[in-house]
Amino acid sequence: MTASPANPTKVRGETILSVDNLVKHFPITQGVLFQRQIGAVKAVDGVSFELRRGETLGVVGESGCGKSTLARLLMRLETPTSGRATLEGKDLFKASGGELRRLRRNMQMVMQDPYTSLNPRMTVGDIIGEPFEIHPDAAPKGSKAKRVQELLDLVGLNPEHINRYPHQFSGGQRQRIGIARALALKPEVIVCDEPVSALDVSIQAQVINLLKQLQGELGLSYIFIAHDLSVVRHIADRVAVMYLGRIVEIGTEDEIYERATHPYTQALLSAVPVPDPEARDQRNMIRLVGDVPSPADPPSGCHFRTRCWKAQEVCAVEDPATVPRAADPHPSACHFAELRPTPA
Amino acid sequence: MTVNPTPASATPEGGHLLELRDLHVEFRTNEGVARVINGVSYHLDAGETLAVLGESGSGKSVTAQAIMGILDTPPAFVRSGQILYQGEDLLTRSEEQRRQVRGKEIAMIFQDALSALNPVFPVGWQIGETLRQRAGMSRADARRRAVELMDLVKIPGAAKRIGDYPHQFSGGMRQRVMIAMALALDPKVLIADEPTTALDVTVQAQIMDLLADLRRELNMAMILITHDLGVVAGVADRIAVMYAGRIVEHADVRSLYKAPAHPYTKGLLESIPRLDVRGQELSTIKGLPPNLMRIPSGCPFHPRCPYVQQVCVDEVPHDLVLGDGRTSACHFAQEVRDDSVAR
């Protein structure tokens, strides 16, 4: 395999991407000619985390929690309202020109929908080879076709299909094309935004295995955004749980899935259907009432308090910080963080 | 082991509430004929929940559309088979007679509530429309009943929200509106086609609970069409697994999860990531579902099957009856089940 980590001497486990208090507010305006801002959708509202080299950080949450906006911010497809992010020590949002191009090479994205994220009029070879047009130094002259074929082989597609069009491939194969495109520039960080949610169960497993295998071979770091907690548990080393633009709990896979202290995480986990009919009556489910409030008008204090069974007055007044709690030493944004009592 | 081409369990006195017999549906397109449903037989009795499980293109939704009589014709044509509702074949009825069955006897809810609702009318008006048209209610009565129905599906502040438009509701609430519409004429059978696929997991749990409660309260029979093995495990009594337009396995839900008897079911169960187990590698089903214009010879699953033998390429497997009302359309059903038990 020719595609190896850009620099094998880099230490696994050191911080590669660091995000500090990232905020993105989308303005809501009124009026046609004289537009004035009447509010803001707080899509991402102060998110901080670190991604280490070679690890997978899962980001889970329901629709509207800001996880996709987070991905778009990191890819610089959106400009943040405030906050900082550094990739290998370089500021992602201050970079411009050549420096930005170099940073972008190092961070690529796999999109959710393999049907709409590939240009139907381009051949697979052109799609996967397009990054080389933008970054000509990534593939020496004349080696482009060979490189594309290597990438096809790497993601488990037939290299002879280089001249085919996206519609000639199934959903799972198209997602492999998307992955090959993301790998073309040998990035170190890949942001995967719901990469398997559009795929059937039997195909989903193939793509997850591929992502894991590529991570092992190439030493990639993933930010893996998904709403399916079972999939995230399978692939992630650490997990961040988002609710209304904030990370409410973050920890290792074991800390989140076995020792969650935030009520939202606990409810989310308990709502996942378990494929075992024997567990039907024994599961001790937490039923959340109502829907996620609008991010244009989030509740005061703790954003989760309107659906929380533990909510007290302090929750409406004081915004809980995402800090380690007494119940378990991983960050959790709840005034009353505690482990879930094991069902008797 | 006996070979039996008809459904396994015995017909109760007076027959099943709903029974499909050897249904064949094809799509005639310019590129050729796609055989979408190839001999589907299943039945449903009052008060029970049957899950129809399959991946995209397996024919699970087309079967439901055939029952409802809402297939797009052309390109879809029912080639043969029977759909018996209370003993009478719906396929031989006139369009007007089928319309009387739709909604009143058999109702359906769809996956995407936003596109299933009309964006330019208030939801109360849409729920009431059925009542005015079909039950002959006055506007005022229909409105009153619409509020009751919205209460029934636990939409908070029903009386206040009756004049709201679909876009003013969240995804979960829209799905509740759909359910209220389906229940308007008190149907005996409710077909739910991927009712929670577009919803978040906490909302999904609310909707599945609601459906289970309503089914019990109103003593309806329910056909739950889904691709989610987790959802099925939570609510279904029986399960029919579809692949390439056929039912490949049919069993009660507990014994199917305990010991699948078809290699496809077995592969599916092994390939889902589990919340309670962190495995290293997921096992996969190799290859892709078949193109329905060129279904493989013999058993349609044979190109992807780890148990494949020459007989699978040559002969279409019949439904093997495995006892307890289970059937499996596999030449090696017994072996597969024994392997599953040993696992």
UniProtKB/TrEMBL annotation, chain A:
Domain ABC transporter intervals: 17-269
GO biological process, one term: peptide transport
PROSITE patterns tied to this protein: ABC_TRANSPORTER_1 (PS00211), ABC_TRANSPORTER_2 (PS50893)
Gene Ontology MF term list: ATP binding; ATP hydrolysis activity
Any Pfam family the entry gives: oligo_HPY
Family to which the UniProt record says this protein belongs: Belongs to the ABC transporter superfamily.
Protein name, entry field: sn-glycerol-3-phosphate import ATP-binding prote in UgpC
Species the sequence originates in: Micromonospora noduli
Biological classification of the source: Bacteria, Bacillati, Actinomycetota, Actinomycetes, Micromonosporales
From TrEMBL, chain B:
SUPFAM superfamilies found in the cross-reference section: P-loop containing nucleoside triphosphate hydrolases
Key words, A-Z: ATP-binding, Cell membrane, Membrane, Nucleotide-binding, Transport
PROSITE patterns tied to this protein: ABC_TRANSPORTER_1 (PS00211), ABC_TRANSPORTER_2 (PS50893)
InterPro entries documented for this protein: AAA+_ATPase, ABC_Ni/Peptide_Import, ABC_transporter-like_ATP-bd, ABC_transporter-like_CS, Oligopep_ABC_C, P-loop_NTPase
Bilayer topology term: Peripheral membrane protein
Gene Ontology biological process terms in this record: peptide transport
Family the UniProt entry places it in: Belongs to the ABC transporter superfamily.
Protein name: Oligopeptide transport ATP-binding protein OppD
